[in-house]
Amino acid sequence: MIDYGITLQAALTPITLISGVGLLLVSMTNRYNHSTDRLRQLLRQSEAIKPRRDDDLEHAIDLIFLRVRLLRQAILLVVLSGMCSALLVLASIAEIAIASDFMLLKSLLLLVAVVLVVISTLIFAKEVSTSMKALGLSVHH
Fold first, then answer.
1. Which pTM was predicted?
2. Long-range CB contacts (< 8 A, 24+ apart) of 37-45?
3. Could you tell me if 33 and 72 are in contact, meaning their C-beta atoms sit under 8 angstroms apart?
4. Rounded CA Rg of the chain
5. What does the pLDDT look like over 87-97, one tens digit per residue?
């Protein structure tokens, strides 16, 4: 028979990690949507002035495209981290249900989930830095 208290206790850490990952994902997705909207706006502006070329506009497009790529990478890593956390919950419940020891698998899943969050956060920090660089260009003009 499954003891629900033990099951809940075993699943609590990965469920908490999933919550944190979800909040990070919401923030990244909002920035991604804003960046893609701004990129589309700048591309329309660039098309409107063709055949003339505006170097500042081209540079702004390049920076925002870089931001979108960075955010896409960060979002992918956060989603993979959430998946590892969900698999960790599943492994914890399966471990209790079939009375086996999945400690190595659970440790590996937790390690991968946390490493993915760390890498994603570093990429997100790079995106914020790039955003500040783009903002600096706007302020100087």
1. 0.83
2. 38/64, 39/64, 39/65, 39/68
3. no
4. 21
5. 998 998 888 88
